[in-house]
Description:
Blueprint: H1 11-19, H2 25-42, E1 69-77, H3 80-84, H4 86-95, E2 101-104, H5 113-121, E3 125-129, H6 141-157, E4 162-164, E5 182-184, E6 205-207, E7 216-218, H7 226-232, H8 239-251, E8 254-259, E9 264-265, E10 276-277, H9 278-292, E11 296-297, H10 301-311
Parallel strand pairs: 1-2, 1-8, 1-11, 2-3, 3-4, 4-5, 5-7, 9-10
Antiparallel strand pairs: 6-7
Amino acid sequence: MSSSQSKSLTFKELLFYFVKPLVPRRLQIFFRRQIIRQKRNRFAQVWPINENAGKVPADWSGWPEKKEFAFILQHDVDTQCGHDKCRKLMDLEEKFGMRSTFYFVPERYIVSYRLIEEIKKRGFGVGVHGLKHDGKLFLSYESFQRQARRINNYLRMWDTTGFSTPSMIRRLEWMHHLDIDYSTSTFDTDPFEPQPEPVNTIFPFIVNKTSPKRKFVEMPYTLPQDFTLFVLMQEKDASIWKKKISWIAKHGGMALLNSHPDYMNFDNRKCGREEYPLSLYKDFLCYVNTNYKDDFWHVLTSKIACFIKTNSVM
């Protein structure tokens, strides 16, 4: 076994895998809020903006149609509740002329094939979000190989080659076992994740697999996740998203927002402990359309991957 395959787990990852499931969800949220409150000042120089991530790659030739930057929307659907909100979220995004990709967890809840067909028919995308979302996908190389075979079955059944890792726990060097063309498993900067190491770029990049024909495009999320901003940090507006997209546009990168319908409150009622008003997401889409409408290339993640692989960049 190679050194990358036998790589030992860090202490933080061990805590995530084995201790987190034993802690009630309410306490998890409480402790994570306290930790983030302590970390936020310490990492102010690299979050939400890390200037090092804005460096343009040497072989970068620009976005299609001479657009200044790319704007990508995708959603990790963590629970049945989030699954059941997808149609409402599509309705909202369609009003802005936008489309997104929905990543479902195949063995955590019931995924409706009718919904998958409707998503595609309406011009949206579908991907696979882990397998069970239990934090154990990358626990060992052998178990990952076994789970990868099941993930590949769902990729075929759903006719997709897109993947995102739960909780951004990843081993990119193992993912050659997945039949994927693109993935969101990293971030340009996010010191608050269980595996906090950043990739330090706001551009997509190619991950070489064992065979050049099986390489995939990694598309790091570059806008903070909604759960971090609105549930853990309890931000009351979308100003951090607006500040970050302005910086990304200036540097010509990819503004990829990975959000979750699970935590969006569509009903104008009082928000629960893990909810935020849909108006925050809606306000951001309106802001982007109003201020950058003619400046960004807005496509599905699958099309970004095709562009990167076809042009053999990054």
